[in-house]
Amino acid sequence: MKVATGRNLWLLAFYMFVFGFVIILLGIISHVVVSSFAKSWFATPLPHKFTTSWYIYSYKTFQLPHIMYVTLIVAAGVVFFGLLISLPAAYVFARKDFPGKNYLMILYLLPILVPQMTYGIPLATTFFKYKIGGSILSIILANLVPMIPFGIFILTPFFEQIDRSMESSARMLGASRLRIFQKILLPLCIPGILVAGLLILVETIANFELSFLVCGAESQTLVINLYYAIFAAGMRPVYAVDAMAVIYMVLVMSLLLIILRFVPATQMVFRLDKR
Amino acid sequence: MSRSLYFRLGFHNLDRAALFFLLPSLLYLVLFFLYPFFYGLVLSLTPESGKPIYHNFYLFLADDWQRSTIWKTIRLAIPITLLVVFISVPLAYTMRRGIKFERLITTFLILPVSLGTVLIAEGVLGFLGGNGWFNQFLIKIGLIKESFRFTYNYTGVVIGLFLKNFPYCFLMLLGYVSGINPEIEKSARILGARPMQIFWRIMLPLMAPGITIAFCLVFVMDFAVFPTAILLGQPAGETRTIAIAAYQMAFEHYDMPKASSIAMIMAMTQMIGLVTILALRRRLYRGTSLGITKG
B21: closest CA among A87, A98, A147, A146? Predict the structure, then answer.
């Protein structure tokens, strides 16, 4: 019985810690939301008056339509080219064994493991040297560096699940390599493509460092703008900054809601068991 | 290469189509990852004319204010990494066979990971700020008289990093530990091992490889701390990390050779950290991790 009590105590501590963490998290999120609707708010549990005018204010002063446009173009570009480039590579990683495969895997892991700050500065330098720094294109190109390996590591297990005999049969019936890829493999890995696309999408929208290093005045994504708004605290009312934070949050959370229907949360972070 | 050797090594597997499939991604990484990195390395080794090749590195290390960023970064990275990993391991272990509200808990925990550092910073500034709910609460229950400064200092950065990296590390370890074959634990229990024995003698050694990688990843993320250190810390003081120093050199002084040298020093310091972690692990535990995963 002693063992059982010990376990119960431990479980109690476990739930208390998780509960505390979730409370703080909820506090952080709802503080931003409440503040974005406050007329003014100073050292009281809740603001005395509520207003939606900060959303109109931030829509105008932050040039929200333009920011949204940049964010969506960047996200769409990274998802499209990320999938296009990582899909065939994932297929080779899933199906082929060749010498140096492990070393190649390590090379592909580096952009995920090495912090973006470390290679972002040389990358930004290179972009500015070739006069593409500061453009929307440069943000897409920079974000693709970690996202291509990320896509490969998500897609490879999906290809591994597809039975090899499908390909063999198609091959025997005379289908060409390209046709097999098009007609058999691609339809079978639609779920994988969907998952990888969504994960790349949310990662790109939330990714800060790389976009921050290469962006210019006209090519700031939502999260970069949010950063500058917080950084220049005092230039604008904190409620307006919070309104923009809420817009960003709604975007990320709605994507997250879709993603969690397909992927468990433990698979959204770096997977330790996949080598 | 002779044809038989070619076959023996297995290169025949990598036919032209496979190469063609691999090429775009490989080319991309060479062009946009390896090339910039080596360009940065070369740039860092090209000081103003007439100076020795290591001059940029010397300038950084000889300047007290610049050199102190290394210590400031370490002072943040190591405690937070230890805190994050040491809390994540027992929690992930507890959840290994599933638990009540598991889905709800993991859903909440993925939130800070997805929302990112900038949003967390804004939330912490409000919630834990001088007039935020948390301080109001502490004053109300009589724990403190005046509001406590959680933000714009070392504590703020610790909180910000913990909020993002703890869920990340926890979910990573949870994925790893639930992949360990449950039969192993069952056998130990049948042979009469107590829960504590199972944890220390069986499961912890099996988790060691995963913990090591998680430790390395969290350390790397903490070491590169940038937006959190600026928004929640004192970027001109105690939390001026090495990433901030590199950024300022590149985009405030527009001195790319010096900035590259700082980025290289950052990468090297980080490598030293990783090698130390791996060496420590080898000293602490030596063993096999073969055949532990389910099917």
Answer: A87
Q: Is residue B252 part of a domain?
A: yes
Q: Are A22 and A98 members of one domain?
A: no
Neighbours of B15 (CB within 10 A): 13
> Structural domain of residue A17, as residue ranges?
1-36
Measured CA distances, B95 to B88, B99, B177, B182 (Å): 11, 6, 9, 13
SS3 at position A233: strand
The DSSP code for A134 is B
Tally of structural domains, chain B: 2
* pLDDT score at A4: 63
Going by C-alpha positions, the residue among A150, A34, A261, A31 that lies closest to residue B110 is A261
Number of domains in chain A: 2
Contacts with A126 from chain B: Cβ below 8 Å: 35-36, 39
B125 and A27 within 8 Å at the Cβ level: the answer is no
Q: Are residues B7 and B141 in the same domain?
A: no
Distance CA A172, CA A273 (A): 35
Looking at the structure, do residues B40 and B68 belong to the same domain, yes or no?
Answer: no
Q: What does the angle CA B28 – CA B223 – CA A129 come to, to the nearest 5 degrees?
A: 40
- CA-nearest residue to A32 within chain B is B123
CA distance linking residue A3 with residue B57, whole number of Å: 58
User: How sure is the predictor about B167, in pLDDT bands with cuts at 50, 70 and 90?
Assistant: very high
CA distance B257 to A136: 25
pLDDT band at B98 (very low <50, low <70, confident <90, very high): confident
**Chain A contact present for B244, CB below 8 A:** no
Nearest to B123, CA basis, from B148, B87, B153, B156: B156
- Residue ranges, chain A, pLDDT below 70: 1-4, 272-275
Q: A27 and A67 share a domain?
A: no
- For residue range A29-79, list pLDDT tens digits in order: 999 999 999 998 888 889 999 999 999 998 888 889 999 999 999 999 999
Burial class of residue A102, CB neighbours in 10 A (0-12, 13-18, 19+): exposed
Measure the CA–CA gap between B190 and B202, rounded to whole angstroms: 13
Statement to judge: residues A122 and A232 lie in one domain: yes
Residues A101 and A134 in one domain: yes
Beta bridge partners of A215: A134
Q: Which domain holds residue B94?
A: 62-284
Contacts of A98 in chain B (CB under 8 A): 10-11, 13-14, 18
Q: Do B81 and B121 sit in the same domain of this protein?
A: yes
Alpha helices in chain A (DSSP H): 2-36, 53-61, 64-95, 101-113, 116-129, 136-161, 164-172, 177-180, 186-188, 190-206, 209-214, 222-231, 238-262
Mean pLDDT of B54-63: 93
Q: Provide the CB-side half-sphere exposure for B274 (13 A, CA).
A: 18
A108 plus A145 within the same structural domain:
yes
Q: Which of residues 13-72 of B touch A (CB under 8 A)?
A: 13-14, 17-18, 20-22, 24-26, 28-29, 32-33, 35-37, 39-41, 43
